[in-house]
Amino acid sequence: MLVPRQKTSALEVATLSHEDFNLTSENPEQFTLVAFYRGLHCPICANYLKELERLTPEFEARGVKTIAISSDGQERAQEMADKIAASSLRIGYGLPLSVAKAWGLSISTSRGKTSIGIEEPELFSEPGVFLVRPDQTLYYASVQTMPFVRPVFKEMIQALDFVIANDYPARGEYTGSV
């Protein structure tokens, strides 16, 4: 289980149109925002990633690098990138499901074709959004078991303004007895 203020699990994936992503070699001023998404088959993911693409320059202005990652292969990842007109947002692909589990993501099984007529992979991870400090310690995590009701990126930008201005610490770090 990932714990705030502690190192995250390793994370390395290939990306489209950018160098391969390796969390240990990221050098953001403030954070890396990692948005794990279900894959090309998910219409909610497409809308969600369109918003992250639109807001990536605002995150960058605050010292936050962004990446969206799925277990899809390169071809499906490229289709998603085309669908959302990705130009600023890095798109990672080929996430091993063992790595997804190490990040605390839920794994789902295929139910066939989705409402948009795209076949779900046999297994895939459900969404998660993470903010990771430059030293690879976890700052924020939101993990879901369903594709619905995700963190709002515009609200996250507003929260980051407060966090950065006030050097607000990561919360939820206590792991002792209760």
Strand order of the largest sheet: 2-1-5-4-3-8-9
Largest sheet: 7 strands, mixed
Task: Write down the overall geometry.
Answer: globular
Helix content: 25-40%
CATH architecture field? 3-Layer(aba) Sandwich
Structure description:
- The chain is an alpha+beta fold and 178 residues long.
- It has one domain: 3-Layer(aba) Sandwich (Glutaredoxin).
- The protein contains 4 helices and 9 strands.
- It has helices at 43-61, 74-83, 97-102, 153-166, and strands at residues 12-15, 21-22, 31-36, 64-69, 90-93, 107-109, 123-125, 128-132, 138-143.
- The strands form 2 sheets. It has a 7-stranded mixed sheet with strand order 2-1-5-4-3-8-9, with helices on one face.
- The longest helix is centred in the first third of the chain and has 19 residues, at 43-61.
- It is globular.
- The mean pLDDT is 97.
Keywords:
178 residues, alpha+beta, Glutaredoxin, seven-stranded mixed β-sheet, two-stranded antiparallel sheet, 4 helices, globular
Strand and helix layout:
Layout: E1 12-15, E2 21-22, E3 31-36, H1 43-61, E4 64-69, H2 74-83, E5 90-93, H3 97-102, E6 107-109, E7 123-125, E8 128-132, E9 138-143, H4 153-166
Parallel strand pairs: 3-4, 4-5
Antiparallel strand pairs: 1-2, 1-5, 3-8, 6-7, 8-9
Task: Give a quick precis of the structure.
The protein has 178 residues and is α+β, with helices and mostly antiparallel strands. The protein has four helices and nine strands.
